[in-house]
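Many introductory courses stop at the sequence. We go one step further.
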Amino acid sequence: MDNTKILEQIVQNTSTKTSTQTVVSDISTKIKTTFNPPIELDRTRKYEMALGNLETYYSFPNLSDENNDFRYSLGFIEGGSTRQRQWAEVQNSEGSYDLIDIAETIKISMKRNGHNHEAVKITANTNTLKSVMEISNNFIVDFRVRNSIASFIGFAQQIYKEGIHESQNVVNISSINSILVNVDVIGGSYVNGRTKNTIYRVFPNVSPGYKIVENPRNLVYLPVILDEINKMETVVADQNGKQFNLRGENLTIRYHLREI
């Protein structure tokens, strides 16, 4: 390397580096940001970005109209020469529940319907991570209905009669393994072997209803793939690419952009 190139390298290494903080916020997990004026980047230099901070509430539901139906029968209706089962349904409100919450909600709804709320008891087997359903007084539970709560508490979609039943599967309280923060101005990231614009991964360390505050100890920087940033899109999704329903709560993310 000649002296001129050495001097240029020294100047570049000792010159002031560009550094920019960007904060985006919305009640949606897809945030579109327009920069005015645009962020101009020197084409002769390289830049990288990291997630500096994320704040929101653990408000995304694990129970919705896709898995909230609990159908049960409390006996027969006598009508002439025929006997027909009397059925009732509980459709639990959208929200974030654990197994104890959902068991208590079902009991309250059955009592509100004027039915024996002690006839169906749902508890946890902490050793197997499965749920146990105890049915008495000739009640029947039907998990074959559409949008049944069956998978949520680990049961197969079938009819269960009086007795004690342990779920076939472990309780599926949360289908979320990871929260992925994706931003379309960076590269150099892979998810399951495929190129993605995922800048950060986190899993909530709080219970539903509490605030999530993520402050990475060591910022992980990924290369910026643009020469000028006019617009930027942030998408927060689970490990399957499904966006979260924040139910009106705010999501705030701070990014740090710097020159290498």
